[in-house]
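INPUT
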Amino acid sequence: MARTSLTLSSPSGRALRGVSNTVLVLIGICFALPLAWLLLASFDPAATLTLKWPSALTLDNFASVLTPELAWLPLWNSVQLSGGCAIITVVVAVLAAYPLSRYRLRINRPYLYGILFGTCLPITAMMVPVYSLFVSLNLIDSITGTILFMAAASLPMAIWMMKNFMDSVPVVLEEAAWVDGASMMATLTRVVIPLMRPGIAVVFIFVFVQAWGNFFVPFVLLLSPEKQPAAVSIFAFFGQYGAVAYGKLAAFSLVYSIPVLALYVFTSRVLGGGSALAGAVKG
Amino acid sequence: MSSTHVVAAGGRGGATAPRPPARRNRLGRSVGRSVPLIPSMVLIAVFLLGPVISSFYGSFTDMSLTGSAAQGTKFVGLENYVQLFQNPDFLQSVWLTVLFLVGSAIIGQNVLGLGLAMLMRNGNTVVRGIVGTLVVTAWILPEIVAAFAAYAFFHDDGTFNELLALVGIHGPNWLYALPMVAVILANVWRGTAFSMLVYSAALFDVPEDVTESAEIDGAGGAKRLVYITLPMIRRSISTNLMLTTLQTLSVFTLIYVMTAGGPGTKSSTLPILAYQEAFKFSQLGLGTAIATILLVIGAVFSVVYIRALRPEVD
Amino acid sequence: MKRILSALAVGVVAAAALSGCSAGAGGDKVIKVAYQKFGNFTQMDSQMKSVAKQYEAAHKGYTVKLIPIQASENDYYTKLSLMNKSAATAPDVLYEDTFLIKSDASAGYLAPFDSYVKDWGDWSKFPDNAKQAGQGEDGKLYGISMGTDTRALWYNKELLTKAGVPVPWHPKTWADVLDAAKKVKAAEPGVTPINVYSGKGAGEASTMQGFEMLLYGTKDTLYDESSKKWVAGSKGFEDSLEFIKEVYQGGLGPSVQDALDPNFGNTVSGQLLPQSKLAIDLDGSWLPQNWIKGGAAAWSGWNSAMGETPMPTQNGAAPDATSMSGGWTLAVGSKSKAKDAAWDFVKLALNKENSLAYDVNATQIAVRTDVASDPKYVDANPTNKFFSDLVKVTHFRPATSVYPKVSNNIQVAMESVMTGQQSPKEAAKTYDDALPNAVGGANHVTTK
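OUTPUT
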C-alpha cells in the first residue's frame, strides 16, 4: 500500500483515515448483525427472532439436524454435484477463454455478447423443456447428466470471468513459448494456467457456491432420494417448519453454509483467490 | 493481491498481439484457433440452446403443467403477452422489478460497493480485513440461508426493530408495511461484496499521483471523484453494472422467503409472478412469457450501459 | 466444424448416458410408486415400504420401486407433473391430492378405475362423498381415498369459561360464534378471540379453512355441479366476506399484519394455542399432529385444554354443521404399462388393515366406514371420532384445473375486506368481474 502512504501522512490524511475507519466499522456492524443472529440462534434452546445472548448454550439444535438422512448424505451429494460442476466448468471455460482472449476471431464479439445474456437466463422457467430433453437423452436421475447441465448453465458467467482474467496475463511469456515452437495447448497448460491460478480459484469458488445453493435443478432432474443434494433437504426443511423452529433452522443453515465458507477461506488463504476475484470482472 | 498486480502489469493491449507465425491459410487458421471453444459451444448448445428456444416458443402457447391444456398444447400467438399487458398486477410487477433493480443493484450495491472500496483504501488494515470478511460472508452464504437471516432481521420482532427501539424509535413492521424497502436492503446486504471487490481492484489501478496532483491543484474530494477517479474506472463501472443488473433481475429465493411477494402483491417482482403463474396456476406458457420479458428488460439495461460507458467486450 | 460439433455432442451425451442410470426400465414386472416424503412426514414412506413388502410376497416376479419425492406441496406437484408428462418416468402408482385429481385427469395423466372397482368388494365401505372426491370432470373415478381431513372450531375451554361461555360449547349459528368471540374480547383483553385464516399470506388455508368453511354453510357454493359453471353474484359469497369483516374490522381476529404473515399457520398451532393466547380457531383436524410427542410443537396438555365443536351453518339450517375436506388418494398413471398390477397394489394398500395402519400412524381422518368404527382407530387419538363424524357433512373443493386461480381471487377478496380497502359488496363485485378471466371465459360462469 505504498501508494497511499503519502496522502495519509498529511494532517488531513490522518483525519480522513479516522473517518474512514469509523464509517467502515459502522457498515461492518450492519453487515454483521444478521449473521450474528444466525450464529447465536443456532446455539439457543429457545431462539426467537431477536438477536440476544442465549440463556443457555446448547448443541441440541445441531444434534437434531445432523442426521445421516437430513445432513450427511445430502451434503456429500452436494459435494459431488457442486465439485463436478465446478471442475467441468473451469476446464471448459479455460479452454474457451484462450481463443477469446488471445485471438481476434470473427466469432468473439457475438459469442461474448451471447454468453453475457446467458448469465441471466431464468433457468427455473426453462425446467420443463430441460426435463423433456433429459428424458429423451435418458439422463433423468443421472448425477453426471445433472452435473453437465449445471456446468452448461454456469459456463456463460465462467467464460466471461475467465476471459477477463486471461486478458490480464502478460503475453510476453507466451511469445517466448511460441518461438520455442510450443503448441497452443502446451502454451496454455504450461505458461498461462500457472500464471492465472488465483483467477481459476475464483471461478471455481463462484461456480461451486452457485451450484451449492441450487435447489430446483437437482430437484427436478434427479429422482432417487439418495442422490438429492443438501439444497433439496434444506428447502424441504424450511417448507415444513416455516420459520418457527428458529434454533433448528439456524443450525441447519450453518451446517449447510459451512462447507462453502470453508472453501472460500481455504482458497483465499492458499491462493489469494478472494482479492483476485476482482480481476475477473473488472473488464 | 497477486492477481491485481498481474492485472496492472498485463494490461489488455497485449491480447491482440500477433500469435505464432502461422503458415496455413487464414480460414484454416481461424478454424484451428476456434477449436478450444468447441467444448463450451457443445455444452451450451446441447443443454441451453434447445430449452431456451423451446421456452421462447412456449410463451406463444397455452402450455400447462396440468389440466386439459397439458394434453393438447395449442399455439395461441401473442395471447399471453396481450393478457399480461392488460393485467394491472403484471404492470405493477414490472415497476417493482425496476424499483428493486435500481434500488438494490444500481444504487445500493454499486454506490455502497464503491464507497466501501474507497474507504478501504484509507482504512486501517485490521478494520479493512474484518469488514471485508463480513461483507463477503453475506455474499458467499447460500441464498436461502441469507434470505432466512434477512427475514429474521427485518421481522417485526426482529433485530432491526430491537435496535431502533434502543434509540427510542418504534420501527414499523418492515415486511408488512414497507416490504420493498426490506427486500431492497436485504439484497444490498447480500450483494454488495461483489461490487466492493470489483471496485477495490479497479481503484488499485488508479495511479495515486493522478489524484495527488489534482489535490495540489485544489480539487476537493467530490470533484476528484467525479472528474478523475470515476472516468478512470469507467469500464469497471459499466461491466459491474451489467453483471449486477443481470443477477439482480433474476433474484427469487430472497424475496420469496422474506415476503412471498406480499402482502398482497406489494413485493411481487417478475420472477415471483412468473413462479406463481407457471407453478401455482400451472400456466407454463404465461410463466415463460414473463421470463422472456425479464430477459428483454435485462437487454435494455445492458444496451444502455454499453452505449453510455463503452466497456469493450473484446 | 458442424461434423465435429455433432460428433462431440453425441460423444458427450453417450458418455453421460453410459455413466448415468436410467429411471427404471419401465418393464412389466416393475411397479413404480411415487409419493411425497417431507420433513416429519415419513409415515407415507414407511407405509409404502410395508405395502411393497406385502405385495412382493404375494406377487412373485414383481418388484416395487419406490420413488419418494422430498419436497413441500407445490414442488411435489411440479415434480409429479413433469414425471407424468414423459412415458419413461411416469409412475404406475401415485400419491395424488384430491385437489389435483380433476386437473391431472383432464391432463391425461391418470387411468380411470371404474371397471376395477366394480369387482372390488371393499368399495362399498367408502362413503359417497369420498367416492366423489376421486372423480374427474368427466365423472369417471381416478383416485381412491387413503384418508382425509375435516375442519371445525377448536376452542380453549378455560378462556371460554372465563369469558362466560358455557363449555362444552355448541354454537348453532354464525352469530353464536361471533357472540362468543365478543365475550372473550370483553373479558380478556390480551387474548385474540377468534382466528379465521384470511388473505394471501396463508394461501390455500385462507380459502379452505376460512372462506369455504363459511360459504358452504350458506345456501350457496363456489361451483354449480349440475351446470358445471362457476357461481358469481351469490348472496352467500358476500355474507361470508361480511363475516370476515366482522372478525378483522371488528377487532375479534388477529391483527391484520399477523394474519397476512405467510407463517401465521405455524404461529397459531405452535404458539398462540399452546400459550392460551387464542380462544377460538377455525382450523383442521390435523392440529394434534403438531402437539403429540415428537411433533413440531409438543404440548402434552392439549387434549384437556382444547375442545372441538362443528362449524355451524349460517343460520342453523340443516344439516346444522358444515366442514371441508381435502385428503389424498392413490391413483394409477395412464402411461403405466402394468395397470392391472398397479391396481392390485392400490387394492392392497387400501384394504382394511393397511388403511387402518396408515390412518392411525399418519393421524388421518378415516374414510372407510369399517376403519372409522374400529376401536383401534377411535382410541388412537381422542379427537378421531369427532372429526370422522364430520365426514357426513363435509364438502370437497371444486378442484378443477382453474381452481388455484379462483382460490387466489378469493384470497384477494378476503384481503381487501380484512384490511378495510373494500366493503364486502365491492370485494364480491371485484371477484365476479375477474371470474370469467380466471375460469376461461364467461360461458363457464353463471350469475345468481
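end of record. Chain A has two domains: 14-58, 65-281.
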